[in-house]
Amino acid sequence: MSGRDRPVRTPEPDAAAAPDTSVAERPDPDLEPIVAASAVRGILASVRGRRAPIVLIDGPSGAGKSTLADAVLERWPGPAPSLVRLDDAYRGWNGLARAGSDLARTLVPPLRRGGVGRWIRWDWVADAPGALERRRPGRALIIEGCGAFAAGALAPDAVHVWVAAPDALRKRRALQRDGGRYDPFWAIWEQQWRRYVHRTAPERRATVRVRRTDDGRLEPASAQSAPSAVARA
Known about the structure:
The protein is α/β, with parallel strands linked by helices and 233 residues long. 31% of the residues lie in helices and 18% in strands. It has helices spanning 37-47, 65-75, 96-106, 108-112, 148-151, 167-177, 186-200, 229-232; strands at 54-58, 82-85, 117-123, 128-135, 141-144, 159-164, 208-212, 218-220. Helix 1 (37-47) packs across helix 2 (65-75). It is globular and about 40 Å long.
């Protein structure tokens, strides 16, 4: 879970707060990875020549999915894709599995049929369902977040991007990035992530692999060198 684009939340004493992402308290830029141009090129090469392609960017919390999605969006040739961050669709801190299944039903299939895709934004401040979001067909779509492969389960021709990172590194960066607000929920999220990995083996569906190095850089990873999330979970 990235926390990059969730709104600021000022919780009540017993509320389960989402990480604060106000501009004033953004983490040190040095904590963010540098995205290798070759990593972005690999993804763009996979969508070349496709009409309204779907790109799914999945991987564990703290691996660099949001940063990679931003880099792909910035360098996308032609009209910019629609970007859906699963952080905005999780129904609270226990919502990993449901977000994927919801989008797999209401967002991706309608778009592939030429209709309007829909999903419900989660209001982290109210801890309740928020606005109904719509996506019109005919435009490329990027879905990023833990469980993105599940969200695109009915799009087997989608580009499946797997972002991996050493466990200790991703935990340290994820917790530092959110200034301590993620700390109480790390274990909760990791348990859901591990269940998702063991249930669906998402890494096996990857068509493009990116790894986060010890210095935080996001680089292409071969199938042989990419760490196994199934084994590590």
